[in-house]
C-alpha cells in the first residue's frame, strides 16, 4: 500500500520590486539616508522615478531638516595650476594617490582646463569663488549643479592692488544654509590700494552691481594677507593682516576696525603667522583665535563690550599628541590649513594626512590620507541636490543601480 504524500507548501510570493513601491514609501526610505552627497546622487542615478522623489522640494526640506540643515563636508578645494578638488568620503579617509592625481570636482564640468591659473578665494554654503589670472574677473561656481556666473571686478580696482574676496549669503535670506544655492548671494571684495587705503566693495546677485563702502572714519591701513581666506562670524567678516592684526568688517553697519592678535606671531615669520586662525565658537557668543606653536595648540576667546573687542582671554593650551595620533611624527610638521566656520572645525595638515579638529569638544577625525604638501584648503559642503537642479544623468543608468542598492543594504 503506497503512502500518500503530504501536500507541499505553496512557494512564497515573489518579492515586490523595489521600483514598484509608491513614491511616498520611497521618500520614507530615502529620507533616512546619511547626508553625504554620494548617497542622494546614487539614488537619483538609479531611475527617473527615484530622481523625481529625491529632487522634490518637500522631500528636500524634510531631508535638510532631518539632518539639522547642516550639509556635510564633501571635500576640499585647493589651488594648483588648475584648482583641484579632493573629495572626502563618508566615514573614511580618501585614498591618497588617485584622489590627488585626477579627482574631478563634483558635478560635470565644474573645473576645466580653461580654469588654469584661476585662484580659489572662498568656499561657503555650496558656492565657490575664484579669481582670474589677470585678477579682473571673478567666478561664482556652483560645483554640484555645474553653474557658473562671471563677474567683472569693481571699476576702480586695479590688478596691482592687494586683494581678495569672499562669497556670502545675502543677510536676512530665508533659505537655510543647507539650500543656500537657491537664494541670493553677495560677494565682499576687499583690496589695499597703492596709496595705502583699504577699499571694500559689495556685490549683490539681486542687482548685479557693485557698491563701494564709504567709511565715516579713516579706514585702517593694514594690508590684508591675500593668501588666507576670510572667516565669517555672524554678520562680521574677519581677514588676517600681514601684520599681527585682524581686520573686522560688519556687513550691515559697514564698520571696519582692527583687532590685535593675542600672541606675538613674530611679524617677519610668515610660517608662524600662517599657523594661526580666527575661529568661531558654535554658540556664536564670541570670537576665537587658535595658534599652534611647537608641541601645543593654544586657544583664546575675545571679550566684547557693546560690540567692541576689549581683550583676549586664554581658554586652554593642549598638547597636540593628546589630540592627534602623531606617534613617530615630528610635531613641527603640523600646520593649520583651513577652517569651517559653521562647525568650528580647524583643519590640520600632518605627515599622516589631514585631520579635522572640533575646537569646542577637542575631538579629531582623519579626513584625508597623506597626499603631499598642502598650504591652504577651502572646505566644500553641500547636500548635492536642490529642486530643479541638473544631476547629470548618464546615457545608461543601469550601472549605478548596485551602487545605491548597497547604500540601502538591499
From TrEMBL:
| Domain F-box span(s) in chain numbering | 15-63
Q: Where in the sequence is the signal peptide annotated?
A: none
Question: Matching InterPro entries, A to Z?
Answer: F-box-like_dom_sf, F-box_dom
Q: Where is this region: Disordered?
A: 88-108
PANTHER family noted in UniProt: F-BOX DOMAIN CONTAINING PROTEIN, EXPRESSED, OS07G0120400 PROTEIN
This protein's name: F-box domain-containing protein
What organism is listed for this UniProt entry? Urochloa decumbens
Amino acid at each position: 500500500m503506497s503512502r500518500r504524500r503530504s501536500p507541499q507548501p505553496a512557494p512564497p510570493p515573489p518579492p515586490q520590486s523595489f521600483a514598484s513601491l509608491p513614491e511616498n514609501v520611497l521618500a520614507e526610505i530615502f529620507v533616512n539616508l546619511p547626508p553625504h552627497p554620494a548617497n542622494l546622487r546614487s539614488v537619483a542615478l538609479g531611475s527617473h522615478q527615484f530622481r523625481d522623489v529625491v529632487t522634490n522640494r518637500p522631500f528636500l526640506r524634510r531631508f535638510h531638516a532631518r539632518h539639522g540643515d547642516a550639509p556635510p563636508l564633501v571635500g576640499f578645494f585647493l589651488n594648483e595650476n588648475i584648482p583641484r578638488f579632493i573629495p572626502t568620503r563618508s566615514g573614511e579617509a580618501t585614498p591618497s594617490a588617485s584622489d590627488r592625481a585626477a579627482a574631478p570636482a563634483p558635478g560635470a564640468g565644474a573645473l576645466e582646463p580653461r580654469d588654469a591659473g584661476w585662484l580659489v578665494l572662498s568656499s561657503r554654503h555650496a558656492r565657490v569663488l575664484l579669481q582670474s589670472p589677470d585678477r579682473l574677473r571673478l567666478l561664482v561656481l556652483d560645483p554640484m549643479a555645474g553653474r557658473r556666473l562671471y563677474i567683472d571686478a569693481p571699476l576702480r580696482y586695479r590688478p596691482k592692488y592687494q586683494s581678495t574676496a569672499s562669497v556670502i549669503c545675502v543677510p536676512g535670506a530665508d533659505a537655510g544654509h543647507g539650500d543656500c544655492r537657491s537664494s541670493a548671494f553677495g560677494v565682499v571684495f576687499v583690496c589695499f590700494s597703492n596709496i595705502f587705503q583699504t577699499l571694500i566693495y559689495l556685490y549683490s546677485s539681486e542687482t548685479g552691481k557693485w557698491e563701494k563702502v564709504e567709511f565715516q572714519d579713516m579706514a585702517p591701513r593694514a594690508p590684508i594677507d591675500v593668501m588666507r581666506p576670510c572667516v565669517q562670524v555672524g554678520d562680521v567678516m574677519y581677514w588676517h593682516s600681514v601684520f599681527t592684526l585682524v581686520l573686522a568688517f560688519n556687513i550691515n553697519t559697514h564698520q571696519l576696525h582692527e583687532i590685535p592678535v593675542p600672541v606675538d606671531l613674530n611679524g617677519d615669520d610668515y610660517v608662524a603667522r600662517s599657523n594661526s586662525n580666527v575661529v568661531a565658537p558654535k554658540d556664536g557668543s564670541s570670537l576665537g583665535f587658535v595658534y599652534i606653536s611647537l608641541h601645543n595648540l593654544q586657544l583664546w576667546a575675545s571679550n566684547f563690550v557693546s560690540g567692541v573687542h576689549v581683550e583676549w582671554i586664554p581658554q586652554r593650551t593642549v598638547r597636540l599628541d593628546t589630540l592627534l595620533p602623531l606617534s613617530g611624527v615630528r610635531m613641527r610638521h603640523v600646520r593649520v590649513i583651513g577652517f569651517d566656520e559653521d562647525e568650528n572645525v580647524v583643519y590640520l595638515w600632518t605627515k599622516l594626512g589631514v585631520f579635522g579638529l572640533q575646537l569646542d569638544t577637542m575631538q579629531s577625525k582623519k579626513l584625508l590620507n597623506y597626499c603631499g604638501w598642502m598650504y591652504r584648503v577651502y572646505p566644500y559642503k553641500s547636500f548635492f541636490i536642490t529642486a530643479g537642479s541638473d544631476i547629470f544623468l548618464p546615457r545608461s543608468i543601469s550601472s549605478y543601480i548596485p551602487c545605491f542598492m548597497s547604500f540601502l543594504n538591499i
